[in-house]
Amino acid sequence: MLILTRKSNESVIVGNNIEIRVLDIRGDQVRIGFSAPSNIPIYRKEVHEAIQHENAQAAGHGTHRLETISLSLGRELADTLRTVKERKSA
């Protein structure tokens, strides 16, 4: 982890196109401004973690649903093949 000391109105550049500027310092709170291209999402950590959690849950539900559909289709296909074989032998 890189640790820097910055005063109000000083900034840090990340990569070539992201600027992080200290806007104001009041007591134990620091206001920070970000300048970045619009295709780079910027989230507070707790928001990012919530998004990741929701995505993981949604992916888990999607996988379970896909498995359920696959099993159901597999049973239907097996039943259909069995019926076709029975008709051919009759």
Can I get a quick summary?
This protein is an alpha+beta fold and 90 residues long. It is built from one helix and three strands.
Task: Report on the architecture of this protein.
The protein has one helix spanning 45-89, and strands spanning 11-14, 18-26, 29-35. The protein is rod-shaped, with a radius of gyration of 28 Å. It is 50% helix and 22% strand. The longest helix has 45 residues, at 45-89. The protein has 90 residues and is an alpha+beta fold. A hairpin with a 2-residue loop joins strand 2 and strand 3 (29-35).
Top keywords for this entry?
single chain; 90 residues; alpha+beta; three-stranded antiparallel beta sheet; 1 helix; 3 strands; 22% strand; rod-shaped
Terminal Cα separation, in Å? 75 Å
Q: Overall mean pLDDT score? A: 86
**Share of residues in helices:** 40-55%
Judged by helices, strands and strand pairing, the structural class is alpha+beta
Strand content: 15-25%
| String of helices and strands | EEEH
Using the CA coordinates, give the radius of gyration. Answer: 28 Å
- Counting DSSP H or I runs of 4 or more residues, the number of helices is 1
Low-confidence stretches: none
Q: What is the strand tally?
A: 3
- Shape designation: rod-shaped
Largest sheet: 3 strands, antiparallel
Strand order of the largest sheet: 1-2-3
